[in-house]
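Form 12-C: Joint structure prediction
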Amino acid sequence: MNAPPTEDPDALEVDLRGRVGDLAIDVALRATADRPTVIVGPNGAGKTTLLLMILGAHRPTAGHVRRGGESLYDAKAGVDVPIEHRRVGFLPQRYALFPHLDVRANVAYGIRAATRAERSRLAEQALENLGIAALARRRGPDLSGGEAQRVALARALANQPAALLLDEPLGALDAAVRADTRAFVAERVRALGVPTIIVTHARADADAFGGEIIVIEEGRVSQRGRLEDLTASPASAFVRRFAAASPD
Amino acid sequence: MGGLLAASLLLLVLLPVAGLLFSSSPRQILRGLGDPLVWPAIRLTVLTSTASLLLVVLTGTPLAWALARRPRPGRALRLAETIIGLPVVLPPAVAGVALLLAFGRRGLLGPALEIAGIGLPFTKAAVVLAQSFVAAPFYVQAAVAAFRRLDPELVLVARALGASPPRVFFTVGVPLSWPDLAGGAALCWARALGEFGATLMFAGNLVGRTQTLPLAIYTALESDLQTAQSLSVVLVAVSVALLFGLRGRARR
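Section 2 - Result
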């Protein structure tokens, strides 16, 4: 059932085992830069936990994470690179914009530049690139969900991450803006061109982004493949329901 | 009936304050401030309580951050949290004895301090230690509560954007907790201003050196009630100002 291995020197290679509360995680996957890897699974299956382990916020007990051949975590070798040095971007489900900073300062936060003025300039440029320059002086609480998601994405991209993790990027949005934002996120992620993992529960997201779909149930991979493979031969009741769901 | 009971408690608090403010004319109160005890005590109190506040904020903020940021604090951190709360339930007189038994000449650190040529008891430093000991929990507990309210995802995202833990502390933790930190600092300062028992026992009651306002009130009471009253009015004015400052903050 494994997808054919892709030649990609920048790939994100994950092979992790660990435990958070009652949930044992045991997942191996390889995310390449050409198309986002989509993770789906029922609530509580360990999808977010897995992202946090890749990010370095939860410590696994065994396995490794490598990005472009560089070891970010390796239980055997005793490697555990701190979050701030992993260059792995993270978009949490509720965006987590800094509420005390305006949009421009949010985007500038992760920009590496010598001076504050230079950071501001680059932040404005990043906002312009994403077509949201008009939001620069607004604050997080004043933004709509779709706007906040765009700003959060702009902030993550401006940091020039070498890999990207998105947790339910469209989960908190109204259906009316979801399709629009989905296209926006998909286009930006493609333009960024780094290994990207997207956690979602919606079939439409898997359609728009994927790539390989990895199904996680109870902390383990229950099936992986393209959407048509999952539809043709679902390995579990969850996959059957997921594949049969309406596109949105 | 209930109203009567409630009113009597209000009166119990209000009457002494009224007595303090209105049993003498403003001119008499001002005259009381002419006593030679007054200005050294006010100067010393402002100096030591400000130093105590700085000491507590400088050491207590990182401690509170460490206590609040661990999702599952280990035994050592839980113990630290209990220890830091101890002065709240400790009678000030006991705190004074405890400080003497730790830092006094015959205390735990006495021999070490003597070798280093440091004599703490009956110095300004002793006043600051006594005030910090008693007032620290008011700030630290407020800071821990403030940092616990911080959304952990903000911290996580900041670090994923490349910020080191100290940078996260200064650019996310402190700015977002600022109002609560300031409230805790005001409480801490008020407690340090009013410190009496521990200071008396550990630092003594030496005019100009260790005699803070509360101690000066105590000394004045033996000879001149007017000076005691005037000094008390000064302390009440400061405390009320702090209380209203806190209220204003809480409403926002």
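Section 3 - Comments
Residues 73 and 80 of chain A are 4 Å apart (CA to CA). The radius of gyration of chain A is 18 Å.
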